[in-house]
Amino acid sequence: MNLSRRKFFARSAAGAAALASIPSIVSASIAPAKSSGNYSMFSRADTVLFQGDSITDAGREKTKELPNNPASFGSGYAFLAASALLNALPEKNLTIYNRGISGNKVYQLDERWKKDCLDLNPDILSILIGVNDYWHKRDGHYDGTVEIYEKDYRELLKRTKDNLPNVELVICEPYYVLNTSVVDETWVAPMKKYQAVAKKLADEFNTIWVPFQKVFDEAVKHAPATYWTGDGVHPAMPGAQLMAEAWLRAVE
């Protein structure tokens, strides 16, 4: 075997080992579910909705916006998590949508909430929002504050529960990953405030909580930050798989 082939197989083995470690990374970050692990919160014919910004959007098509459709899901964690649910629960006949839109902040979710949430009447609603509320302020493209984030987010959740009193909410933690092309140490203190608000609201509304920051903090112990995300926000392929595994663990 020549040197180049040996290097190729060595790199392939290293990549496989890193991917194989994703379940253990999630296990180290999220306590095992109290349930039997069979996704008992999902009932027959439930509608599941993923909402958020570009991390959820992941390049999905926005014309047909079909449920259970690869093009309408994009290539991110929502597609992977939805695919896993549909594979695990064929007897439940779930209807799953992705309505994330790149660049969104909380107030932009609110502006499209009737069409992209309430009219879909979800039984389970997952929301990942917050990074743009900080990032766009940082870049001078938005004048919001963490206080506005909290106010807008609380009002959005209240509006949702008022209209959909039986909906099961899943709030995902906005996250950042250091030592990447965009995110550096100056992100840490301000982002922790947004994360604290998201956790506060998750507790206040008694939602399921997905601790993405804890998961990524564990992940960078096993592979470089840029293996999981190039810019520190948008996940690479293994980062998307990591997020999907974490989301599934939280809801199982």
Automatic annotation (TrEMBL):
<protein>
    <submittedName>
        <fullName>Lysophospholipase L1</fullName>
    </submittedName>
</protein>
<keyword id="KW-0732">Signal</keyword>
<feature type="domain" description="SGNH hydrolase-type esterase">
    <location>
        <begin position="52"/>
        <end position="241"/>
    </location>
</feature>
<dbReference type="InterPro" id="IPR006311">
    <property type="entry name" value="TAT_signal"/>
</dbReference>
<dbReference type="Pfam" id="PF13472">
    <property type="entry name" value="Lipase_GDSL_2"/>
</dbReference>
<feature type="signal peptide">
    <location>
        <begin position="1"/>
        <end position="28"/>
    </location>
</feature>
<dbReference type="InterPro" id="IPR036514">
    <property type="entry name" value="SGNH_hydro_sf"/>
</dbReference>
<dbReference type="InterPro" id="IPR013830">
    <property type="entry name" value="SGNH_hydro"/>
</dbReference>
<dbReference type="GO" id="GO:0004622">
    <property type="term" value="F:phosphatidylcholine lysophospholipase activity"/>
</dbReference>
<dbReference type="InterPro" id="IPR051532">
    <property type="entry name" value="Ester_Hydrolysis_Enzymes"/>
</dbReference>
